[in-house]
Amino acid sequence: MFSKPFFPNDTTLCAGDSINFNFGSFPNQTFLWNDSSTIPTKTIKQSGLYWLEISDNGCASRDTFNFSIKEQPIINLGPDTSVCTGTLFGTSFSNSKSTYLWNTGSNDTAISVNTAGTYWLEALLDGCIFRDSVTLAVNPLPSIDLGPDTTLCAGDTITLSQSNLNAAYLWSDSSTVNKLQVFETNNYWLELTVGGCTNRDTIRIEVFDSLGSSFLPETATLCNNEVLNYQLPLQNSSYLWQDGATGRNYSISDSGLYFVQVTNTCGSLTDSLLVTKDCECEVIVPNAFTPNNDLINDQFISRISCELESYSLEIFNRWGTKVFESNQQKRAWDGTNNGRKLKDGVYFYVLRYKGLNEKIQIKKGSVLLSR
Asked: Where does 219-277 sit in CATH, by number?
Protein backbone atom coordinates (compact mmCIF):
# COMPACT_ATOMS: atom_id res chain seq x y z
CA MET A 1 0.00 0.00 0.00
CA PHE A 2 1.19 3.50 -0.85
CA SER A 3 1.72 5.79 2.07
CA LYS A 4 1.13 9.51 1.96
CA PRO A 5 2.52 11.65 0.50
CA PHE A 6 3.01 9.88 -2.77
CA PHE A 7 3.07 13.11 -4.83
CA PRO A 8 6.19 15.31 -4.93
CA ASN A 9 6.09 18.90 -3.72
CA ASP A 10 3.94 21.38 -5.63
CA THR A 11 5.68 22.23 -8.90
CA THR A 12 5.91 25.20 -11.31
CA LEU A 13 7.14 24.58 -14.87
CA CYS A 14 7.55 26.48 -18.12
CA ALA A 15 4.74 26.54 -20.63
CA GLY A 16 4.90 23.47 -22.86
CA ASP A 17 6.58 21.35 -20.20
CA SER A 18 4.79 18.49 -18.42
CA ILE A 19 5.19 16.13 -15.48
CA ASN A 20 4.58 12.36 -15.68
CA PHE A 21 3.34 10.05 -12.89
CA ASN A 22 3.42 6.22 -12.95
CA PHE A 23 2.38 4.41 -9.79
CA GLY A 24 2.71 0.92 -11.27
CA SER A 25 0.08 -1.79 -11.13
CA PHE A 26 -0.30 -4.24 -8.28
CA PRO A 27 -2.99 -6.80 -7.54
CA ASN A 28 -5.92 -5.56 -5.48
CA GLN A 29 -4.97 -1.84 -6.10
CA THR A 30 -7.35 0.60 -7.67
CA PHE A 31 -6.79 4.26 -8.70
CA LEU A 32 -9.14 7.22 -8.82
CA TRP A 33 -8.02 10.65 -10.10
CA ASN A 34 -9.82 13.94 -9.63
CA ASP A 35 -10.91 13.72 -13.30
CA SER A 36 -12.46 10.26 -12.57
CA SER A 37 -9.81 8.39 -14.55
CA THR A 38 -8.71 5.08 -13.01
CA ILE A 39 -5.31 4.36 -14.51
CA PRO A 40 -2.02 4.44 -12.55
CA THR A 41 -0.30 6.83 -15.00
CA LYS A 42 -0.93 10.47 -15.87
CA THR A 43 0.81 13.26 -17.75
CA ILE A 44 -0.01 16.74 -16.40
CA LYS A 45 0.38 19.76 -18.74
CA GLN A 46 -2.11 22.28 -17.36
CA SER A 47 -2.11 24.28 -14.17
CA GLY A 48 -4.43 23.06 -11.45
CA LEU A 49 -4.95 21.16 -8.22
CA TYR A 50 -4.80 17.39 -8.77
CA TRP A 51 -5.59 14.54 -6.39
CA LEU A 52 -5.24 10.79 -6.54
CA GLU A 53 -6.86 8.19 -4.33
CA ILE A 54 -5.24 4.73 -4.17
CA SER A 55 -7.13 1.79 -2.66
CA ASP A 56 -5.41 -1.43 -1.62
CA ASN A 57 -7.55 -4.27 -0.33
CA GLY A 58 -10.25 -1.80 0.64
CA CYS A 59 -7.96 0.69 2.34
CA ALA A 60 -7.87 4.06 0.60
CA SER A 61 -5.21 6.77 0.74
CA ARG A 62 -5.47 10.22 -0.99
CA ASP A 63 -2.82 12.90 -1.80
CA THR A 64 -3.03 16.24 -3.63
CA PHE A 65 -0.65 18.00 -6.00
CA ASN A 66 -0.65 21.65 -7.20
CA PHE A 67 0.84 22.23 -10.67
CA SER A 68 1.53 25.79 -12.01
CA ILE A 69 2.65 27.15 -15.40
CA LYS A 70 4.95 30.18 -15.46
CA GLU A 71 4.05 33.33 -17.43
CA GLN A 72 4.96 32.98 -21.07
CA PRO A 73 6.21 36.05 -22.99
CA ILE A 74 4.31 36.57 -26.20
CA ILE A 75 6.52 36.27 -29.27
CA ASN A 76 4.90 36.60 -32.66
CA LEU A 77 7.07 37.13 -35.72
CA GLY A 78 4.10 36.53 -37.98
CA PRO A 79 3.94 34.45 -41.13
CA ASP A 80 6.77 34.13 -43.62
CA THR A 81 6.92 37.30 -45.70
CA SER A 82 9.07 39.64 -47.80
CA VAL A 83 10.59 42.93 -46.60
CA CYS A 84 12.64 45.78 -48.06
CA THR A 85 16.38 46.00 -47.48
CA GLY A 86 17.09 47.65 -44.14
CA THR A 87 13.57 47.08 -42.79
CA LEU A 88 13.35 47.02 -39.00
CA PHE A 89 11.68 43.68 -38.29
CA GLY A 90 10.68 42.20 -34.95
CA THR A 91 8.02 40.95 -32.59
CA SER A 92 4.85 42.97 -32.29
CA PHE A 93 4.81 42.27 -28.54
CA SER A 94 7.47 42.83 -25.90
CA ASN A 95 7.81 42.31 -22.19
CA SER A 96 10.06 44.52 -20.11
CA LYS A 97 10.79 41.55 -17.81
CA SER A 98 12.08 39.39 -20.67
CA THR A 99 15.49 39.28 -22.30
CA TYR A 100 15.74 38.60 -26.02
CA LEU A 101 18.19 36.87 -28.34
CA TRP A 102 18.10 36.72 -32.15
CA ASN A 103 20.02 34.19 -34.18
CA THR A 104 22.04 37.25 -35.37
CA GLY A 105 23.27 37.83 -31.81
CA SER A 106 21.18 40.98 -31.28
CA ASN A 107 19.37 41.45 -27.97
CA ASP A 108 16.84 44.01 -29.29
CA THR A 109 13.18 43.28 -29.94
CA ALA A 110 13.70 44.20 -33.61
CA ILE A 111 16.59 43.91 -36.08
CA SER A 112 17.47 45.51 -39.43
CA VAL A 113 17.10 42.90 -42.16
CA ASN A 114 19.38 43.05 -45.19
CA THR A 115 19.71 39.37 -46.12
CA ALA A 116 17.05 36.79 -46.97
CA GLY A 117 16.81 33.76 -44.67
CA THR A 118 15.18 32.24 -41.63
CA TYR A 119 15.33 34.29 -38.44
CA TRP A 120 14.42 33.19 -34.92
CA LEU A 121 13.92 35.12 -31.73
CA GLU A 122 14.14 33.69 -28.23
CA ALA A 123 12.67 35.29 -25.11
CA LEU A 124 13.92 34.34 -21.65
CA LEU A 125 11.56 34.97 -18.72
CA ASP A 126 11.95 33.53 -15.22
CA GLY A 127 14.16 30.71 -16.46
CA CYS A 128 11.86 29.74 -19.33
CA ILE A 129 12.85 30.11 -22.99
CA PHE A 130 10.31 30.64 -25.77
CA ARG A 131 11.11 30.89 -29.49
CA ASP A 132 9.44 31.90 -32.75
CA SER A 133 10.90 31.90 -36.25
CA VAL A 134 10.09 33.37 -39.65
CA THR A 135 11.49 33.10 -43.16
CA LEU A 136 12.07 36.44 -44.89
CA ALA A 137 12.66 37.34 -48.51
CA VAL A 138 14.46 40.67 -49.00
CA ASN A 139 13.63 43.08 -51.83
CA PRO A 140 16.29 45.66 -52.78
CA LEU A 141 15.74 49.41 -52.39
CA PRO A 142 15.60 51.45 -55.61
CA SER A 143 18.92 53.10 -56.44
CA ILE A 144 18.98 56.90 -56.03
CA ASP A 145 21.77 59.51 -56.04
CA LEU A 146 21.16 63.26 -56.33
CA GLY A 147 24.89 63.94 -56.13
CA PRO A 148 26.93 65.97 -53.63
CA ASP A 149 25.76 69.24 -52.09
CA THR A 150 26.46 72.13 -54.45
CA THR A 151 26.24 75.91 -54.92
CA LEU A 152 24.68 78.29 -57.44
CA CYS A 153 25.06 81.96 -58.26
CA ALA A 154 21.93 84.09 -58.02
CA GLY A 155 19.98 83.83 -61.27
CA ASP A 156 21.34 80.38 -62.14
CA THR A 157 19.35 77.13 -61.98
CA ILE A 158 20.18 73.45 -61.66
CA THR A 159 18.04 70.48 -62.70
CA LEU A 160 17.87 67.54 -60.32
CA SER A 161 16.77 64.29 -61.98
CA GLN A 162 16.71 60.50 -61.74
CA SER A 163 15.78 57.87 -64.31
CA ASN A 164 13.90 54.78 -63.17
CA LEU A 165 10.99 53.73 -65.38
CA ASN A 166 9.50 51.43 -62.72
CA ALA A 167 9.61 53.95 -59.90
CA ALA A 168 7.06 56.32 -58.40
CA TYR A 169 8.57 59.77 -57.71
CA LEU A 170 7.94 62.14 -54.83
CA TRP A 171 9.99 65.35 -54.44
CA SER A 172 10.22 67.59 -51.39
CA ASP A 173 7.84 70.06 -53.09
CA SER A 174 5.26 67.22 -53.55
CA SER A 175 5.80 67.02 -57.31
CA THR A 176 5.81 63.52 -58.85
CA VAL A 177 7.82 63.93 -62.06
CA ASN A 178 11.40 62.73 -62.59
CA LYS A 179 12.96 66.24 -62.71
CA LEU A 180 13.06 69.28 -60.44
CA GLN A 181 14.47 72.72 -61.28
CA VAL A 182 16.15 74.46 -58.34
CA PHE A 183 17.19 78.11 -57.95
CA GLU A 184 16.83 78.80 -54.21
CA THR A 185 18.83 77.86 -51.12
CA ASN A 186 17.25 74.82 -49.46
CA ASN A 187 17.47 71.10 -48.73
CA TYR A 188 15.83 69.08 -51.53
CA TRP A 189 14.92 65.38 -51.32
CA LEU A 190 13.53 62.74 -53.65
CA GLU A 191 11.82 59.48 -52.74
CA LEU A 192 11.69 56.58 -55.23
CA THR A 193 9.29 53.70 -54.63
CA VAL A 194 9.54 50.37 -56.48
CA GLY A 195 7.58 47.27 -55.48
CA GLY A 196 6.59 48.78 -52.15
CA CYS A 197 10.19 49.64 -51.24
CA THR A 198 11.07 53.35 -50.82
CA ASN A 199 14.50 54.99 -50.84
CA ARG A 200 15.34 58.68 -50.28
CA ASP A 201 18.28 60.96 -51.04
CA THR A 202 18.78 64.60 -49.99
CA ILE A 203 20.92 67.36 -51.47
CA ARG A 204 21.73 70.84 -50.11
CA ILE A 205 21.75 73.71 -52.63
CA GLU A 206 23.31 77.04 -51.56
CA VAL A 207 22.59 80.10 -53.71
CA PHE A 208 25.25 82.84 -53.48
CA ASP A 209 24.65 86.50 -54.23
CA SER A 210 25.99 87.73 -57.54
CA LEU A 211 28.61 90.41 -56.96
CA GLY A 212 27.23 92.91 -59.46
CA SER A 213 29.33 95.98 -60.27
CA SER A 214 29.28 98.09 -57.08
CA PHE A 215 27.88 98.04 -53.57
CA LEU A 216 29.48 101.17 -52.03
CA PRO A 217 28.73 104.79 -52.99
CA GLU A 218 31.53 106.55 -54.83
CA THR A 219 31.83 109.35 -52.26
CA ALA A 220 30.58 110.33 -48.82
CA THR A 221 31.08 113.24 -46.45
CA LEU A 222 31.19 113.46 -42.69
CA CYS A 223 31.69 116.09 -40.04
CA ASN A 224 33.30 116.06 -36.62
CA ASN A 225 32.26 113.21 -34.32
CA GLU A 226 30.12 111.76 -37.09
CA VAL A 227 30.39 108.05 -37.93
CA LEU A 228 29.38 106.44 -41.21
CA ASN A 229 28.16 102.86 -40.80
CA TYR A 230 27.97 100.48 -43.75
CA GLN A 231 26.49 96.99 -43.93
CA LEU A 232 27.31 95.30 -47.20
CA PRO A 233 24.31 93.47 -48.73
CA LEU A 234 26.16 90.32 -49.83
CA GLN A 235 25.82 87.23 -47.69
CA ASN A 236 27.73 83.92 -48.05
CA SER A 237 30.80 86.01 -48.90
CA SER A 238 34.18 86.90 -47.41
CA TYR A 239 35.36 90.49 -46.94
CA LEU A 240 38.76 92.17 -46.79
CA TRP A 241 38.95 95.92 -46.08
CA GLN A 242 42.01 98.11 -46.66
CA ASP A 243 42.92 97.92 -42.95
CA GLY A 244 42.62 94.12 -42.77
CA ALA A 245 39.12 94.07 -41.27
CA THR A 246 37.04 91.11 -42.47
CA GLY A 247 33.52 91.96 -41.34
CA ARG A 248 30.43 92.62 -43.39
CA ASN A 249 29.78 95.71 -41.21
CA TYR A 250 32.25 98.61 -41.29
CA SER A 251 32.36 102.01 -39.55
CA ILE A 252 34.15 105.12 -40.87
CA SER A 253 34.96 108.12 -38.69
CA ASP A 254 37.66 109.89 -40.69
CA SER A 255 38.28 111.10 -44.22
CA GLY A 256 40.22 108.95 -46.65
CA LEU A 257 40.00 106.36 -49.39
CA TYR A 258 38.38 103.11 -48.28
CA PHE A 259 38.13 99.92 -50.28
CA VAL A 260 36.92 96.37 -49.73
CA GLN A 261 37.38 93.12 -51.65
CA VAL A 262 34.36 90.81 -51.64
CA THR A 263 34.79 87.17 -52.65
CA ASN A 264 32.34 84.29 -52.97
CA THR A 265 31.68 81.33 -55.22
CA CYS A 266 30.48 83.66 -57.95
CA GLY A 267 33.74 85.64 -58.15
CA SER A 268 35.63 88.53 -56.57
CA LEU A 269 35.05 92.29 -56.72
CA THR A 270 36.85 95.30 -55.22
CA ASP A 271 34.88 98.48 -54.53
CA SER A 272 36.04 101.81 -53.08
CA LEU A 273 34.65 104.85 -51.27
CA LEU A 274 36.17 108.34 -50.96
CA VAL A 275 35.23 110.02 -47.67
CA THR A 276 35.80 113.76 -47.18
CA LYS A 277 35.08 116.09 -44.29
CA ASP A 278 32.59 118.81 -45.13
CA CYS A 279 31.27 120.48 -42.00
CA GLU A 280 28.78 123.32 -42.14
CA CYS A 281 29.42 124.84 -38.75
CA GLU A 282 26.54 125.83 -36.50
CA VAL A 283 27.46 128.96 -34.55
CA ILE A 284 25.51 129.98 -31.44
CA VAL A 285 26.27 133.34 -29.79
CA PRO A 286 24.17 134.54 -26.82
CA ASN A 287 22.56 137.99 -27.02
CA ALA A 288 22.71 138.62 -23.24
CA PHE A 289 24.44 137.42 -20.09
CA THR A 290 24.34 138.26 -16.38
CA PRO A 291 27.78 138.08 -14.69
CA ASN A 292 26.52 138.35 -11.08
CA ASN A 293 28.19 135.16 -9.79
CA ASP A 294 24.95 133.26 -9.34
CA LEU A 295 26.39 130.57 -11.62
CA ILE A 296 23.56 131.14 -14.07
CA ASN A 297 24.51 132.65 -17.42
CA ASP A 298 27.55 134.31 -15.82
CA GLN A 299 29.74 134.21 -18.95
CA PHE A 300 29.61 135.16 -22.59
CA ILE A 301 30.94 132.36 -24.83
CA SER A 302 30.25 131.22 -28.36
CA ARG A 303 29.45 127.61 -29.27
CA ILE A 304 30.59 126.27 -32.63
CA SER A 305 29.68 122.73 -33.70
CA CYS A 306 32.63 121.93 -35.98
CA GLU A 307 36.36 121.51 -35.56
CA LEU A 308 38.21 124.76 -36.20
CA GLU A 309 41.55 125.63 -37.71
CA SER A 310 41.46 129.21 -36.32
CA TYR A 311 39.32 131.31 -33.97
CA SER A 312 39.25 134.88 -32.62
CA LEU A 313 36.72 136.88 -30.62
CA GLU A 314 36.83 140.69 -30.06
CA ILE A 315 34.36 142.68 -27.92
CA PHE A 316 33.94 146.51 -28.06
CA ASN A 317 31.99 149.06 -26.04
CA ARG A 318 29.67 151.61 -27.64
CA TRP A 319 32.59 153.97 -28.29
CA GLY A 320 34.58 151.31 -30.17
CA THR A 321 37.05 150.59 -27.42
CA LYS A 322 38.15 146.96 -27.30
CA VAL A 323 37.38 145.50 -23.89
CA PHE A 324 38.08 141.78 -24.54
CA GLU A 325 39.80 139.54 -27.07
CA SER A 326 40.72 135.84 -27.27
CA ASN A 327 41.88 133.28 -29.84
CA GLN A 328 40.82 130.35 -27.64
CA GLN A 329 37.33 129.13 -28.32
CA LYS A 330 36.80 127.85 -24.80
CA ARG A 331 37.81 131.11 -23.12
CA ALA A 332 34.70 133.06 -22.00
CA TRP A 333 34.21 136.80 -21.27
CA ASP A 334 33.10 137.48 -17.69
CA GLY A 335 32.11 141.14 -18.26
CA THR A 336 35.40 142.66 -17.03
CA ASN A 337 38.29 144.52 -18.60
CA ASN A 338 41.70 144.05 -16.97
CA GLY A 339 39.92 142.78 -13.86
CA ARG A 340 37.55 145.76 -13.63
CA LYS A 341 33.82 145.18 -13.82
CA LEU A 342 32.27 146.95 -16.75
CA LYS A 343 28.98 148.83 -16.63
CA ASP A 344 25.74 147.29 -17.74
CA GLY A 345 24.88 148.01 -21.31
CA VAL A 346 25.14 146.85 -24.89
CA TYR A 347 28.51 145.64 -26.22
CA PHE A 348 29.49 144.59 -29.71
CA TYR A 349 31.46 141.53 -30.85
CA VAL A 350 33.34 140.40 -33.96
CA LEU A 351 33.81 136.61 -34.25
CA ARG A 352 36.19 135.17 -36.81
CA TYR A 353 36.52 131.38 -37.32
CA LYS A 354 37.73 128.94 -39.96
CA GLY A 355 36.46 125.35 -40.13
CA LEU A 356 38.41 122.49 -41.71
CA ASN A 357 38.63 122.94 -45.47
CA GLU A 358 36.59 126.15 -45.21
CA LYS A 359 37.16 129.84 -45.71
CA ILE A 360 37.36 132.29 -42.80
CA GLN A 361 33.90 133.23 -41.59
CA ILE A 362 33.05 136.52 -39.81
CA LYS A 363 30.05 136.95 -37.54
CA LYS A 364 29.13 140.31 -35.94
CA GLY A 365 26.52 141.15 -33.34
CA SER A 366 25.69 142.67 -29.98
CA VAL A 367 25.25 141.36 -26.45
CA LEU A 368 23.54 142.88 -23.43
CA LEU A 369 25.54 142.84 -20.19
CA SER A 370 23.15 143.01 -17.22
CA ARG A 371 24.16 142.30 -13.65
From this structure: 2.60.40.10
